[in-house]
Every structure is written in structure tokens, then in C-alpha cells.
Amino acid sequence: MRTFTTSLALSVAFVATALAASPFSDTQLACRTATHDDSLIVRAYGDQDVIELLCHATGSATFNRTTEWVRTNDYCYLPAYFIQLDDATSQKLPKCTDIDGEKPCVLPNLAGFKLIERYDGFLDHPQVDPLTGLTFIGFSHLCESGDCTRESITKKEATVLLWQDIRVVTACLTQMLSVGVSPRARLAFNDNMWSALASWTFSIGCDQAAQSPLIRRIKNGEPLMAVVAAELPKWNSVNGKTVAKLTARRDAELSLFRTSSSRRAFPHCDRR
């Protein structure tokens, strides 16, 4: 897939309405999960950032009533109003609908994000997990490589970290559901199913998910709904003790998994 690079320092038209609407600062532009202003903000681009544009899409009207948006290489959307492309680049930039469906979704849907945020909880400063001895911040972001040197973090900053972490989880899910699958298994997940599995994997870790009876039975071609309904609720304990919060989370994930949707997520993604 070809990408088109443009520097925000040159291409973003920061106008008064944009500055007022920016949730980060007057020199940053919010990038959203979908093509409307009510969608989740997951990335902020500064005026010195270089961004890669993947495609353009039509969505809800934004600041100047235009309905055009652009998707970046971070798989989030910016109002096209703020991206000034030359004619040659604009003509080459494909429609998102023309390139979608090539791969699984790299992110859960908004319901999945909200579920993760709700049950993981927000830590505004680094805290040590007494069970593992590991240090976390934000929405269960593991502190490593010096990324928790600050004393505190905002929810917006934590959301950006969650956006990055969840992409690792969906990559792990994609890998485990693409290797060693029985020929009789016809794996197809809508966005609610995919998001529920992403939340579960985010909660227990990729290694445990990959070795779980849930994934093994899915890959063996057993009935999907029956397997998830039987196996998902079992992951509600720590050191052999049932945890009420984990029970509630598994119930929420199972409910989301069972929620019908026409939007595909795996093995092909319908991004809108």
C-alpha cells in the first residue's frame, strides 16, 4: 500500500475554530477513531510532526461543514479541512473503501475501547502491582524503557498509550488465529466479537490467550458462540480466587461478543 507523507508544519491550517476545539493544546491536532467529531481521540499531532496519509473517507460534517476526512498511518482520522495537499498528491490518495478489507482490524471498536477503559481503570501515576511486582500507569500500560519517568499522566495521554498497546494485542490475536487453524474452521469475527476478544487478551496477556482452551477450540473449528460462552467466563480468578471485577468484565466481554454487527473485523476489516 502506498503512503503519502506531509508535514503538519506546512500542511495543517490551524484556524480559530480548530484551536478552540483541540483537546490537547493550541499546537496539536486530534486524530480520532472514526470520521465524526464524537469519536474517541487517540492521537495528537504536533506542528513539527510528519504524518503518513493512507486514504480519504467521507464522514460526518466537521468544523467547516465538510464531510471529508483523511486516515493516517496510525489508523485514525483527521478532518481533511486541516490537510492542504497539492493536486498531484490529492489525486493519488485512494478512497479508504477501496483499500479496506485487506487485513484484520488493527483496533477494537469504540465499545471495546470503553470496556477496556472501564475495567482496567485509570492510574494517573505509576503504581506497583502487588501480585506481579510490575509497575503500571494509565490504562494498565506496563512501565518499561523509561516511559514512566514522569510523576503523573493525563487521561488523554493514557488513551494514546492504550491506543499503542491495543495494537500489539490485536497483532497477537491475528497471529494466533492465523497459524495452526483446522481446515474445518471458518473463522469470521465481526467488530464486536473482535473487540471482546481484544479486551480479554489485553486483560490476561497474549501468551496466556494463545495457550488457552478458548483459542485452541476456536482454531479446531468448534461452534464459535458455544466455545466463547463456555470458556470466557472461566478467566475470572487470580491465584485460584474468584475476583468479582474479573467476573463482571468477562460478562461484559461475552455480552459484547454476542452483540450482532454487520461490520467485519477478522480476517477482513471494514473500516469506516
UniProtKB/TrEMBL annotation:
<keyword id="KW-1035">Host cytoplasm</keyword>
<protein>
    <recommendedName>
        <fullName>Lysozyme</fullName>
    </recommendedName>
</protein>
<feature type="signal peptide">
    <location>
        <begin position="1"/>
        <end position="20"/>
    </location>
</feature>
<dbReference type="GO" id="GO:0031640">
    <property type="term" value="P:killing of cells of another organism"/>
</dbReference>
<dbReference type="InterPro" id="IPR002196">
    <property type="entry name" value="Glyco_hydro_24"/>
</dbReference>
<dbReference type="InterPro" id="IPR023346">
    <property type="entry name" value="Lysozyme-like_dom_sf"/>
</dbReference>
<dbReference type="GO" id="GO:0009253">
    <property type="term" value="P:peptidoglycan catabolic process"/>
</dbReference>
<dbReference type="InterPro" id="IPR023347">
    <property type="entry name" value="Lysozyme_dom_sf"/>
</dbReference>
<dbReference type="GO" id="GO:0042742">
    <property type="term" value="P:defense response to bacterium"/>
</dbReference>
<keyword id="KW-0732">Signal</keyword>
<dbReference type="Pfam" id="PF00959">
    <property type="entry name" value="Phage_lysozyme"/>
</dbReference>
<dbReference type="GO" id="GO:0016998">
    <property type="term" value="P:cell wall macromolecule catabolic process"/>
</dbReference>
<keyword id="KW-0929">Antimicrobial</keyword>
<keyword id="KW-0081">Bacteriolytic enzyme</keyword>
<dbReference type="InterPro" id="IPR051018">
    <property type="entry name" value="Bacteriophage_GH24"/>
</dbReference>
<dbReference type="GO" id="GO:0003796">
    <property type="term" value="F:lysozyme activity"/>
</dbReference>
<dbReference type="InterPro" id="IPR033907">
    <property type="entry name" value="Endolysin_autolysin"/>
</dbReference>
